[in-house]
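Session log. Operator J.P. requested a structure for one protein chain; no other inputs attached. Running the standard single-chain path with token output.
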Amino acid sequence: MAEQHTPRSLIVTFFGAYGRSFEGGAVPVSALVRLLGAAGVDAPSVRSSVSRLKRRGFLVPAKAADGSAGYEPSEEARLLLEDGDRRIYGAVPASTEWLVAVFSVPEQERHKRHLLRSRLARLGFGAVAPGVWIAPAQLAEETGHTLERLHLTAYVELFRGAHLGFAPTAEAVARWWDLAALAKQHEEFLDLHEPVLRALQAGPEPTPEAAYRAYLPALDTWRRLPYADPGLPRELLPADWPGDRAAAVFAELHTRLRDTGARFVQPS
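Structure written below.
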């Protein structure tokens, strides 16, 4: 099974993993070309993807430590990446409560209705009914940040509490989320990256460049999964749920590879 990584996605992943701690703040363009080249992205694709991310407000021009032209995440992008850290690296404890978003958008502003639905879906919410979406309550802070950034708070009310019925909660969760599709995403991650982990466990310590080459695509794939599967309570999921194993594989890859790869990103 081949793994697909777009240049733009890899650049976002790079800034999430390494770019924010770059010496001097900004990442020189030459370093971006070198480091994305090591991940299989040619220089023209790096430059065009950086330009698109600049137009979208994710990256802003800045002087690098050596005085050359560089880029760093915008303030909004930093907030986005900080929210992502908590989600991607499992820093937020799972909650037994639910977060319910109820929204109503006037017909003349229906483009905002579409934006609301798409952003709630990207955050990992499941749809209960038209205008009613649900997620595990540990997403409350990130949901609030997202709605504020998009100026959508006037259309939404958030509630936190328990599911009281009438169907068993596990049955309801299976309606609100496509669990089969989520399981398939976890299995695809395992198919691609569990062999990488086995090789690491059986072999010598990787070089910094090898660690970086293995870590960046693993993170680029993994970072989508905690949004598709937003940390649903384990007792409400099928007994053979592959998400536990996928999370364990990523956690060990992260431990084994990230800091070693950092020595390739910024050689001492």
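Operator note: The mean pLDDT is 92.
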